[in-house]
Fold each of these.
Amino acid sequence: MSRKPYVREMTSEGIFRHPRYLRYMVREFSCLFIGAWTLMLVCALARLSEGPEAWAAFMEGLKAPWIVVFHVAALAFAAYHSITWFQLTPKALPVQLGEKFLPDGVIAGAHFGAWAVLSLAILYFAGVF
C-alpha cells in the first residue's frame, strides 16, 4: 500500500502571512532599487566622460521630484539591506576563539561600528562637518 506524500499548498499570499517571509521578500526586493541606482551611477560616469555640458544636463535631470523620491527609496532600501546583512553575519561567519564562539552581538556590533565610523569619515571628508 502506497501513500501519497503530503504537499503543502503554497500560494502567493502565503509569503505575506508570516513576518519572517515578508522581511525576506522585502530584502530581496531591495536589490531592484540598489541595481537601478547602480545603473544610474554608470550613466553618471558616462555623462561625466562626455564633457561639462553633458554632466551639467545630467545633474539638472537629478533635480526632478521623482528622482529625489527614487533616491530616498534607494537609500532606505540600501540601509535595510545593510542592517539585515549585518544581523545575518554572525550566522554566516561565526568567529571561534578556542572552544567558544564570539557572541552574535559582538560580531554584528563590530560591523555596525565599522559602518558608523566609515560613514562619519565620509561625511567629514565630504565637508558636511
Note: The mean pLDDT is 92.
Amino acid sequence: EKKRLLLGGICCGVALATGSTLQQFGIMYTTVGKAGFITAFYIIIVPILGLFLGKKCGLSVWISVVIALAGLYFLCITDGFSIGKGDIYVFLGAIAFSIHILVIDYFTQFNDGVKMSCIQFFVCGILCFVPMMLFEHPEISVILYAGVMSCGVAYTLQIVGQKNMNPTVASLILSLESVTSVIAGFLVLHQNLSHRELIGCGLMFIAIVLAQ
C-alpha cells in the first residue's frame, strides 16, 4: 500500500513538473491565447489515451469534447493560426498534463488523495527547484503564490475531486480555466469581453453541462 502511494505521488510529480515546464517554455515563444488553446487539447488527448486503458466515454461526452474545442477556439484564438516552436512545446506539455490526469485517475482508486498530493509536490518541487536556482533569479513572493495557490491548493483539489470520476469529464471541467481567466479579466482587470469570447464561454459551459 505504501509502495503504491509512493509510486503514485512520484508519477504525478514527474508528470506535473514536465507539463508545467514545457508549458512555461512554450509561452516564451507563442501568444498566451494560443498557449491556452493548445494546452486545453488534453480534453481530446485524455479520452484517446483512455481508450487504450479501457476508459470508454459515452456519445454525449465525445460531443462535449468537440463543442469545448470549438469554444476554446473562439475564446483563445483571435488572429491567424500558425504553428511555431513555442506551440510544439505547449502541445508536448498538454500530453504531459493528459498523462497527469490519467495517473491520478488510476492511483486515486487505491490511495488517499491528500497524502498522494503531498508526495507529488515534494517530487515536483525538487525537479523544478534545482534548475530554478541554476538558471533563474526567483522572487520569494512569486514562489509562494505559485507554489501555495496553483500547486498546493488547486492540484490537491484536483486529486481529491477526480476520485471515482471519468477522466475525460474531469479534463472538460479543468478546461474551464480558460473561461474563468476571461471572466476574471473582466471583473478584476476591467477588460472588455468581445462577442467572440462570449460565444466561446457559452460553448464551454454547454459542453460541461452536456458532459455531466
Note: DSSP finds ten helices and no strands in the chain.
Amino acid sequence: GRISAPTLVVIAGRDSTVAPVCSDELAMGIPYARRLHLPAAGHGLPMEYPDVFNAAWLDFTSGL
C-alpha cells in the first residue's frame, strides 16, 4: 500500500511459477494499480502474447 508509482500488474491465468491469485493480491494492494489479465497465458506472457502485452504496455506508459 505504500507504493505510489504508476504500476501495471501483469496476471497470467495459467502461470505455474507465480500463482495468479498472488498477482491479483499484489494489484489489489497497490493504490490505482492497473491490471493486464490474460487467463490463457502462462509465465511467459509477454512472449506468448506479444501484441496484447505490447499494446497494454504502450497504453500504460503513454499516460505517464
Note: The longest helix spans residues 50-62.
Amino acid sequence: MHADQQTISEVKDALNRFSDAFGKRDMGSLMALLAPDPDVTFFGTGVDEERVGPSEIQEQIQRDWAQSESVSIDFEHFSVSGHGQVAWIAGDAKLKATASGNEMTLPGRFTTVMEKRDGNWLIEQWHLSVPMAGQEQGHSFPS
C-alpha cells in the first residue's frame, strides 16, 4: 500500500538525517533515529553484521567508523509504503568509503521498517546488502 505524500516526505527526511549523521560520525543524532526497543534490528553487509538492540547497533556503527577514514551512504531510488504509523521502505543506496587508504564506491540495496512515535519516524528494522560479486547480470547464481 503506497504511503501518502506526508509520510513519504517525513520518511525521506528521516533517511536524509540518517545519512547526514552517519557521514558526520554523529552517534547521538544517529541513535536518535532508532527505536529504543531491545529488538530493534540491523543487518549489514558483513557476514557477522547482525545486530539486535541499541547497544549492539551502536557497537557496529563504531566499528564501521573505526575501520574507515571516511564513510557515507546516499539513498537513491526508493519506494515508501505504509499504513497508519508504520512505513516500510525499499530502495537503492550508494556506499562510499575510504578504508586503509583505499577509496571505494559500492552499490547497495536497503529495506527498512519505520514507526512514527511522538511525531518522529524511528527505524525498527534495517537491512543493507551489496549485490553478490561474481554474479553476472541475467544469472540467478554466481559463476
Note: The chain is about 25% helix and 40% strand.
